[in-house]
Amino acid sequence: MSLFLRCCFSLVSLPRFQEKKMTAVESQLDSMSLRVLELTQDLVQAKVHMETLTKEGYFLLAKARYSMGGAAVSRLQLPNENTLDFDANFKVHLQEDASNDIDVKYPLFHHYAATDQSHTKFDEGVKNRKEPPLTTTKVDDLAPERLNHNPLRWFGLLTPPVLKQSQQCFQKALELSLECANLQCELTAVMTQKNQLMKSRI
């Protein structure tokens, strides 16, 4: 009789344990589904905003060309293979996100000013430490001549304010493009873990 009761208790407890386990998985799936909707909405809004800024940038660029003349604002002022080298104002840094709440890791993109020394590569720092210091010649004197760091100077010294506004629109659109990339990476990671949880239920 004791063995019979023990077996009955085991049969009753097993479904309850499975129900609790299934409830935890379903709760996690619900939260992930909600996160997918939030990320999708944020991604759509960011893309729409980026498209608006890009259109505004081109419109302001057309106004600047109208006020300065077609020859003053054209691709003839842009660098080519025959002009001096130039450095980008901003660069992109890629790293893995370690602060998320999901198990799947995904990359994150960050932009920073090209003059920011905190992103200098470690191997370059080691190389610089091994080289002897220059005492008689400045480093700037050894560097090759480059174009002005500000692209607005390619179109003259006295550029209209509308050209500066156009540049700001494109810079904000660039920041939004990185935000869209980060949202897309996170969305892909959440969907991957969600699919893994759904397979574990089978």
TrEMBL record:
One Pfam family of this chain? Vma22_CCDC115
Per its UniProt entry, which superkingdom is the organism in? Eukaryota
Check the record and name the InterPro entries matching this protein: Vma22/CCDC115 (IPR040357)
What are the boundaries of the signal sequence? Answer: none
GO MF, one annotated term: unfolded protein binding
> Per the UniProt entry, what are the Gene Ontology biological process annotations, in alphabetical order?
vacuolar proton-transporting V-type ATPase complex assembly
Name of the featured protein: Vacuolar ATPase assembly protein VMA22
